Amino acid sequence: MNCPKCNATMESVSFEEIEVDRCTSCGGLWFDLREHEELKQRRGSEAIDTGDHAVGRAGNAKGDITCPRCHARMVRMVDHEQPHIWYEQCSTCGGAYFDAGEFRDFKKHTPGDLIRRWRAKARP
Ligand SMILES: [Zn+2]
Ligand SMILES: [Zn+2]
Fold first, then answer.
1. The whole model's pTM is what?
2. Long-range contacts: 77-82, Cβ < 8 Å, 24+?
């Protein structure tokens, strides 16, 4: 499988029994359906995101990509709990692509994020 952003080869990396793909060039991560949500719950899973956040931020500029699994157009998603995180999701197979450093960020809730979420829920 090749990286949907930079076209380099992706290698498989696993955390516990979950296997994801990581780009050998830009460090972007590919998750099959729901794997990113599953991994978010696991302690220490941010270790798979070894890429450089600066490279990942540059990757955000390229939002128009096709799914490396099924070649459908991917849709840009914004994490509802942390709206500064943009990732791409395939509407056909449900796979998700995170630029380098984004998964670490996705996992890590800052106290500010929690308070914002709490306030949003408290609103009538
Ligand atoms: Zn790449
Ligand atoms: Zn797909």
1. 0.86
2. 79/106, 81/109, 81/113, 81/117, 82/106, 82/109, 82/113
